Amino acid sequence: MSSSEVDPALVTALKRLRLGRIAATLRERLLLAEKQSMGHEEMLLMLLTDEIARREASATESRVRDAGLDPNMRLELWDKTAKVSFDKRLLGGFTSLRFLEEHKHIVILGSVGVGKTFLANALGHLACQHGYSVRFLRADAMLRRLRQSRLDNSRDAEMVALTTVDLLILDDFALEAMSKEESRDVYQLFLERTGHASMIVTSNRDTAEWLAMFDDVLLAQSAVDRFKNAAFDFIVEGESYRPRLKPKLDESNTAAPVPARSKPPTHPRNKRR
Description:
The protein has helices at 8-16, 20-35, 40-67, 88-95, 98-101, 116-129, 139-149, 155-164, 180-193, 207-210, 217-228; strands spanning 84-85, 105-109, 134-138, 167-171, 198-203, 231-235, 237-238. It is α/β, with parallel strands linked by helices.
């Protein structure tokens, strides 16, 4: 048997060890090893490196899916021609994820449509790629979940999930006034996460305007003060980014129009008399 051929017994053994994905590319890897005159250790390292890369990619996909991130909102997909401005040096610092290690927050502020949600998602993707757990929620959806959790006595479990994830991303925070219960929920969330785990919050309102959105002034002052003094301010200004997210027809892959079916000629004998 040639060294480039795969022994069925080896494939069976790999599958029993849950290394079946190595078997899928094993023949090609054996050919490469033979071509490059690799030693046994070098070839084994190549196979195991492939498997590690596959498992890490699979784990990242799982974390992204669990986080609820938009798969199309990643930094490499950001349209650099967009007419928006922000501190690129600050964004570069965020991509190092040092803010996560230091349990700092990021508040992304700007008018409607400038790309706040996109940038928050993009940082979430980076965190997932580096093994952090992430959860992305619209602020109103989070408050609604907490409100509903009170009905089935699952609020404590829901709050634990919100306070223990490595990175919590709240989108469109402080769009509208909060009720007394919602104000307490946000206060508890900000209190328990500040200094312990990071948050990214996007908002159309400056943090000073958040105070008026709370039902209780004292809770508002305490919650907002804790948050903003542990947060980086990231301001995004410019034209709306949303038109760049509109679906476009890929003309290069457009199928040719289907020609209209011509009506078959009627045989003289079939004509009605």
